[in-house]
Every structure is written in structure tokens, then in C-alpha cells.
Amino acid sequence: MLFTTVTNPAEVQQILELQAQNLVSALTAETMATQGFVTVRHEPDVLQRMNEITPAIIAQDGDRLAGYALVMPREFAPDVPILVPMFRMLDGLSWNGRLLRDNPRWFVMGQICVAEDFRGMGIFDGLYLKMKEVYRPRYDFTVTEVAERNTRSMRAHERVGFQTLHVYPDATTGEVWRVIVLEL
Ligand SMILES: CC(C)(COP(=O)(O)OP(=O)(O)OC[C@H]1O[C@@H](n2cnc3c(N)ncnc32)[C@H](O)[C@@H]1OP(=O)(O)O)[C@@H](O)C(=O)NCCC(=O)NCCS
Q: Quick one: CATH architecture of 2-183?
């Protein structure tokens, strides 16, 4: 297994394919409950540009994409409209006594996914280890949010050291989101 960063458009395409397989709309309720799910579908051109600025961390098994973790600096918020309210909320939160709005040294981990036949094999941990190695020089911490009902993802994020910053229900869907932080 090779843990590395995205270097070309074909890898971005592989991310989009793995994402499509794990969207809420593609999964049964039972699969979502036991395996987890992703919520955001990225526009290909936006994901390509994001990967040129801040390449995603990927796990490769030969030609196969085993997993990915997206890196989304706040400058990209307007490009992913569904995440604009989240960035607005994050601006009002503080970490280590400093408002996120006034702190340039963090990014959003925009989405993580491990391909089904690679789950439970340490890929998740490997992606975050690589993320720390690559992004520690530029950033102090990363922020993400996980739906509380995605218990598999919650468990894995707690295990690698994420701490809870904020919990809130989405005003329209009622989905309860947990905003979590990992020191790099
Ligand atoms: C969430 C995901 C990235 C985690 O990767 P993974 O390789 O499956 O994670 P791991 O196996 O290392 O860890 C999963 C944890 O959940 C636990 N788990 C396994 N099945 C579970 C279940 N049905 N319900 C709750 N927890 C479960 C595991 O025991 C493990 O916890 P532990 O270390 O305390 O034992 C992966 O499952 C995935 O891509 N799911 C679909 C997309 C997704 O949910 N992405 C995250 C969006 S926030």
C-alpha cells in the first residue's frame, strides 16, 4: 500500500468514482448504518483545482484507489456551495483560545473514504498519518465534521485522536453533526 498525494487528473477521477459509490443516494439504509456514507458530491472541475492547490492524500494498491482524504482550504468554500454554511459556522468557533476566523493555519478535511474491500486494514490511520507528514509545515490542525449516525466514521476519527469542538443539528435535515479537530 502506497500512501501519497494526488499528482494527476486520473487520480482525481478515481476519487470521484469512489465518492459516487459511497454517496447517501447510492447506499441502502443498512449499508449506511454499518459502513458509513459520504454526503458531499464534488464538481469534477472544483475537485481538480482543489487538488492542484492542496493535493488530497490517497492510498494506492497498484492501480487501485484504496482510499482518499480531501484537503480543503477555506479559500475553496465558495466553490462548494453546500459547505458554505459550515465554513461560516467554523469562523465563529475557537480552538486553542483563538477564533478560527483569525487563524490561517488550519484546513477542512473535506471528505474521507476507504474502498469497501480495504476497510478495517489500517488505511484510515495511514491516510491521516500521511496527512500530518505532508501538511504539518503549513498548517497546525485540521477540522472536519462527521454525522453522529455515521458511527463507524465517528469511532475511527476518535481513535486517531480527533477531539470534539462543537455539535449541532442541521436546521433543515435534522442531521446531527459533530465538528472535530485533529492537531497535526
Ligand atoms: C468511515 C471509513 C473511512 C473508516 O475506514 P475503515 O477502514 O472502515 O475504519 P477502521 O476499520 O479503521 O475503523 C472503523 C471503526 O469502526 C468500528 N466499526 C466497525 N463496524 C462498525 C459498525 N457497524 N458500527 C460502528 N462501528 C463499527 C471498528 O471496530 C473501528 O473501531 P475500533 O478501532 O474502535 O474497533 C470507511 O468505513 C468508509 O469509507 N466508509 C464509507 C464512507 C464514510 O463513511 N466516510 C466518512 C465520512 S465522515
A: 3-Layer(aba) Sandwich (3.40)
